[in-house]
Amino acid sequence: MRCLMLLSLATAAVAQTTTSSSSVTGSFISGPMVLPVNTVGFASAGPVMAGGVVSGVPYSAEQVTEHVQTLADGTHITQSSQKTMLYRDSQGRTRTERTFPLPPGAVGASGPNIIEINDPVSGAHYILHPQNHTAHKMAYHTMPPLAARLPNPGANPGAGAVWFNAVPAPATIAIAPLPNSAPESPRQEPQVSGESLGTQTIEGLLAEGKRTTTVFPAGSVGNDRPITAISETWMSTELKTQVLSKNSDPRSGESTTRLINISLTEPDAALFQIPAEYEIEDAQTTGTSR
Q1: Confidence of residue 72 (pLDDT cuts 50, 70, 90)
Q2: Which residues have CB under 8 Å from 99's CB, separation 6+?
Q3: Largest separation between any pair of C-alpha atoms in the chain
Q4: CA distance 240 to 242
Q5: In contact, 53 and 125? CB cutoff 8 Å
Q6: Which pLDDT value is given to residue 87?
Q7: pTM score, two decimals?
Q8: pLDDT over 70 (residue 41)
Q9: How far is CA 84 from CA 113, 190, 202, in A?
């Protein structure tokens, strides 16, 4: 169970540190299906942090997420927001403190909390468990830009990127269709469009906005009518960090994530260090290092 928890948290860390997003739609191909063996841009151990290290721009803020779902009869279901504290120092080290809400009916002052520290200076990523004073240590990797991840022997992966063994062009394995199997019928793919929303000041910071509209045609996901989902993101040009995002999807409802109480002062250096009373479990050696 604990291994599953660590795996899910590592996956969440990748999402948290992404400063931009892109949509990739696959193609439904009739006939033999080709599967890639090697995926360019992934390391063998430890989480892969998308984007480069942002240094020289320290800040701290609280991230608030709200989700509202509206039922067919007009009933609104509002989920408790998750409280997340974010910190980044001038060297590009980050700290994320997540406090999870208690389930309905549970008794307690607050839910469990998990702390993540990404340290590109020492090349380590930590997941801290304050409940039992332990820290899980993994190797820290950052993912170069997409162009640098494409198979191109001899290419420079980019300054500031923590790269790993060069990966050759993906090998493929062809899987033939089963005998007497009928070819798959063409399926309508989502139609994605984007537009710029210009700039506006959010929490005292100038931010650039983008809106992405995704239309799922009838029959693409079992729907008898088109479904339209809208995603809106606002990036601070100064912090190089997303300060506001809004997502609206009739299948799941509306969610808003924003940064509040933003401070541009240097956070306390102790926030990016492992407390002396913590035992560090190193994933590379599967042992305790302290």
Answers
A1: confident
A2: 82, 83, 84, 110, 111, 112, 113
A3: 67
A4: 7
A5: no
A6: 96
A7: 0.65
A8: no
A9: 9, 32, 18
The helix/strand count (H/E) of the chain reads as: 2, 18
Task: Give the β-pairing of 227-236 and 241-249.
Answer: antiparallel
Mean pLDDT score of the chain: 73
Query: Do the Cβ atoms of 94 and 118 come closer than 8 Å?
Result: yes
Instruction: From 238, 233, 252, 275, select the one nearest 23 (Cα to Cα).
Output: 233
Residue-wise pLDDT tens digits, 180-215: 655 555 677 899 999 999 999 999 999 999 999 999
Q: DSSP character for 8? A: H
3-state helix, strand, coil in the chain (%, to 5): 10, 40, 50
Q: What does the radius of gyration of the chain's CA atoms come to, in whole angstroms?
A: 22
Residues 101-129 pLDDT 10s: 766 666 666 666 889 999 999 889 999 99
Q: What is the pLDDT of residue 108?
A: 60
Are the beta carbons of 188 and 217 closer than 8 angstroms? yes
Distance CA 35, CA 174 (A): 7
Taken in order of first residue, the domains within the chain and their CATH numbers are: 2-27+35-178+188-288 (2.50.20.10)
